[in-house]
Design goal:
Blueprint: E1 20-26, E2 29-30, E3 34-36, H1 48-52, E4 55-57, E5 60-64, E6 70-73, H2 75-88, H3 96-109, E7 122-131, E8 144-153, E9 164-167, H4 185-189, H5 192-200, E10 205-209, E11 217-220, E12 224-228, E13 234-237, H6 246-257, E14 263-266, E15 278-283, E16 287-296, E17 299-302, H7 312-325, E18 336-338
Parallel strand pairs: 9-10, 9-16, 13-14
Antiparallel strand pairs: 1-2, 1-3, 1-8, 4-7, 5-6, 5-7, 6-18, 7-8, 10-11, 12-13, 12-15, 15-16, 16-17
Helix pairs in contact: 2-3, 6-7
The structure holds pyridoxal-5'-phosphate (PLP) and 2-OXO-4-methylpentanoic acid.
């Protein structure tokens, strides 16, 4: 039986669900892992994650489709990205096939928490890994824990479908040859001061510039960015220091193959964004959130077609992508993982 939750109004927070998956890495191998009702973690006070932030994570969602199946979206790509994160952070890779199975098993164990079709909510899935044994010299841990938990979520930005406002902060998100391209917890830790400061000043999120020259657009703290040109081309930043978003990759495919639109991934100088008519953030949590305005130290850029909700092209992208995720539109081969 579905849980008695006000699905329409849950926002993006943590709601404890019944089961989570846990596997431990010791003596060079991962154990079989298990599902547990225990939502707590007990580790050494000196664990690698607590001292040197050796942790990375993933985020994906499960949906109830129009014909009442439960599915999740491209978990194989999250498995592959987590492998890249682990390699960059000197952590052992959790085998990609096992990652996908752990995601499926965890969602299956929490089916009562998958929001119903039409609620606009989904079940957010959070796989993550951390160094668990004592580490005091600066080196990788020898033991790790991989976990997957789930939590029902609604929209990431409080104002839902309304346009958000970004500001260019006086902080960088990533170093030129740093960890911006992987999903390391440390990228988010260092963004916290910038996000609190942005919120205090009335902005929804920070738009980071490229760390080497601070002249090109990169991404926000938790999502990639896309722009639409006056002739309906989708343009998105090319950079080695942004997270390769699975939502963005999927949107670019949808734009080309479902909507017949041109797409271009390129270096985008900040000075050129005033020429775009629509802007949106994209990501698992953000889905596609319209951006109305970007403020850079008093200089404002307003996107005329997305200043008051999604622009026309963004809306088409949104409808097609979510249509695929919800089983309303035929999916490209391999995008939809059946769960039940
Ligand atoms: N960029 C950052 C910094 C993120 O945290 C996320 C969220 O995962 C994304 C982009 C979007 O990636 P994805 O579409 O794979 O969720
Ligand atoms: C996601 O979209 O899955 C993320 O990890 C972003 C995070 C800011 C919630």
């Amino acid at each position: 039986m579905k849980k008695d939750i006000d699905w329409q109004n849950i926002g993006f927070g943590y709601i404890k669900t019944d089961y989570r998956f846990v596997s431990n890495f010791k003596d060079g191998t991962w154990d079989n892992g298990f599902l547990t009702e225990d939502d707590t973690v007990t580790i050494s006070e000196c664990a690698g994650v607590l001292q040197y932030a050796q942790t990375c994570f993933e985020g994906l969602k499960a949906y109830t489709t129009i014909d009442n199946r439960v599915v999740c979206f491209r978990p194989d790509l999250n498995a592959a990205r987590m492998a890249t994160s682990c390699q960059r952070l000197e952590m052992p890779v959790f085998p990609e096939k096992r990652f996908v199975k752990a995601v499926i098993d965890t969602v299956k164990a929490n089916l009562d928490y998958v929001p119903p079709f039409g609620s606009g909510a989904s079940l957010y899935i959070r796989p993550y890994m951390f160094g668990s044994n004592p580490v005091i010299g600066v080196k990788p841990a020898a033991e790790y824990q991989f976990r997957v938990f789930t939590t029902p979520v609604g929209s990431y930005f409080k104002n839902g479908a309304k346009s958000i406002v970004l500001r260019v902060p006086d902080f960088d998100r990533a170093a030129p040859l740093g960890t911006g391209h992987v999903k390391a917890g440390l990228n988010y830790a260092m963004s916290l001061h910038a996000i609190v400061d942005a919120h205090n000043q009335g902005f929804n999120e920070n738009l980071y510039l490229d760390p080497a020259t601070r002249t090109n657009v990169e991404e926000t703290g938790g999502a990639n960015i896309i722009f639409v040109t006056k002739d309906n081309k989708i343009v998105t930043p090319k950079s080695n220091s942004i997270l390769p978003s699975i939502t963005r990759k999927s949107l670019l495919y949808v734009a080309q193959h479902y909507l017949n639109l041109n797409v271009e991934e390129k270096v985008i100088p900040y000075s050129e964004i005033k020429n775009f008519k629509e802007c949106a953030l994209c990501g698992t949590a953000a889905v596609l959130s319209p951006v109305g305005k970007i403020v850079n130290h008093g200089d404002e850029v307003i996107f005329p077609d997305s200043s008051d909700g999604m622009g026309e092209i963004t809306q088409k992208l949104f409808d097609t992508l979510t249509g695929i995720q919800l089983g309303k539109i035929t999916s490209p081969e391999g995008w939809i993982q059946e769960i039940s």
